[in-house]
Design brief:
The protein contains three helices and seven strands; from the N terminus they run αααβββββββ. It is of the alpha+beta class and 178 residues long. The longest helix is centred in the first third of the chain and has 28 residues.
Length: 178
C-alpha cells in the first residue's frame, strides 16, 4: 500500500510540473489523483486503527497490603552563598543561637532579677551621632538613646549588634534578636 502511495505521489508531481491551468483535462486528472491519494491515506488509517485489539487488565484476586513507609528527607539546601543585595556571605543561624547561649543575662545575687530585655535594633540613621535603639523590656516597646533610663535599667552604649545596659549597678550586654 505504501508503494502505491509513493507511485501516486510521483505521478502527481510529474503531472503538476507539466500542467498549465488552461487545459481542463489535466486539471480533472489531477483532481482524481488527489482523491485517490487521500483515499489511500484514510484507508491505511482506518485499517490500522481496527487491527489493534483492546486488552483488558488482568484482575488480581489478592488483597492489597498497605505499607507504612517512612522516607527520610536526605536533601539539604546550601545557603552559604553571597547575598546579592548586601554583598555579604549568609551567616548560619546556628552560630547566632550558640552565641546567645554563651552571653546570657547574668542574674544578680541581690533580690532584684534582671527583667526580660530584647534588643530589636537601631531605629535612627546609623551615621548620625544620636542613635535611637529599640528595646522591649517586659513586653513594653521602648525607644532609648545612650544615657536614657527606664526604672532601674540605664542604656550605657550600643551598636548595630548589641547594647550595654546597667541594672542595679551591674553592666549587661544584650545581643540583637531578629
Amino acid at each position: 500500500m505504501q508503494r502505491v502511495i509513493l507511485i501516486l505521489k510521483d505521478l502527481f508531481l510529474i503531472l503538476y510540473e507539466k500542467i498549465d491551468m488552461k487545459n481542463k483535462k489535466k486539471v480533472y486528472l489531477l483532481i482524481v489523483v488527489v482523491i485517490i491519494i487521500w483515499g489511500a491515506v484514510i484507508f491505511q488509517f482506518l485499517s490500522l486503527s481496527n487491527s489493534v485489539a483492546i486488552q483488558e487488565p488482568a484482575v488480581n484476586d489478592k488483597p492489597l497490603i498497605a505499607f507504612n513507609l517512612k522516607i527520610e528527607d536526605t536533601s539539604t539546601i546550601n545557603v552559604d552563598y553571597r547575598d546579592p543585595f548586601l554583598g555579604k556571605i549568609y551567616v548560619k543561624e546556628e552560630k547566632i543561637i550558640e552565641r546567645r547561649r554563651l552571653i546570657a543575662p547574668k542574674k544578680t545575687n541581690k533580690q532584684s532579677v534582671l527583667p526580660n530585655i530584647i534588643y530589636k535594633g537601631i531605629v535612627s540613621d546609623t551615621k548620625s551621632d544620636k542613635k535611637v535603639y529599640m528595646l522591649i523590656i517586659d513586653g513594653k516597646n521602648l525607644l532609648m538613646k545612650n544615657g536614657d533610663a527606664e526604672g532601674e535599667i540605664k542604656l550605657v552604649e550600643g551598636n548595630r549588634k548589641s547594647v550595654s545596659i546597667k541594672f542595679m549597678g551591674e553592666k549587661h550586654t544584650i545581643l540583637l534578636e531578629e
